[in-house]
Request: fold
Amino acid sequence: MGRCILFQFFGITVAYPSIHSFHFSINIFAADKPSPPRNFRVTAFDKEFVDLKWEVPENNDGEPITGYLVERRGFTKTAFVLQGKTDAKTLNLKATGLIEGTQYMFRVFAINSIGQSEPAELKEPVTAEVPFDPPGPPVKLRAEEVTKASAMIRFEPPEQDGGPPVTGYYVEKEEDGKWTRVNRKAITVRELLLDDLGENSKYTVRVMAENDAGVGKPCAEIIFVATNELDVPGKPGQPEVVNITEASAELTWAAPKSDGGTHITNYVIERKKRGNAKWKVANVDEKVTETKYEVKGLQSGTEYEFRVTADNKIGPGPPSNPSKMVKYGELVLLI
Reply:
């Protein structure tokens, strides 16, 4: 058998064994469309967009990927529409222009010079919505400082905020079997004054919290009657002089047993000389909220007695019993 010389070029092998014989072997490779993208998934969503991501196909069948095509359809629809295209290096797309609360299906195709792949499609629809929950109901709702015409509605934050922080609250009042909002714009403080009430009328109220996901469920309602629950404070304890100097006296007293249902805003301290009928206020330009006070500007050699009156938002209560009469003019320590 003669010597065989082999030539190979452009996939063609030529065998040259003798002067008069040739043998050819040709290998042909046919390119095709790529396989579908892999691991198609949602990475984030909100009420106006959905973020989509995928990985390159397992096989591009001989031709490089040139890009990707994403389509969408409403979950109740049958036809897909174009959502967007990316280049070969971009493996993600933000789907925008969505309608809040609508469910969507998405699919993605890989493209090369031959054509586009079969689609990779989401297994479940995705809803265009805020990815959190509305807050839970506020707690400890109460009506305080109730009068015949007003009431202060107070409450505490929900135990669950739903994810994002609470941004405001709505107070609702039941009227003729229907709930209406007292405040059309959300309030950020946890109290609201109802100041248009009818005397001796019964009212039912509830509160709801709001965050970026929406308004949550209302709390348990409360019922109250618009009547004067508040009153003036009771009578403070008899003042005692615990320390005196030639020109001052330090007083202490017990708070009244009742504050009238609201905070005491001031104690009015009065003094009177022996033989005088008129009491004179010692703290004219000064608010006193503690149960002690130093009376200054006393006259040496003069006997004084003192009394105290508690005041709240409704008004002043009855004055205390007068203190024991004390004469000033010498440095004295009373125990």
About this structure: The CA atoms of residues 55 and 140 lie 52 Å apart. DSSP finds no helices and 26 strands in the chain. Residues 139-225 form a domain with the Immunoglobulin-like fold (CATH 2.60.40.10). The two ends are 140 Å apart (CA to CA).
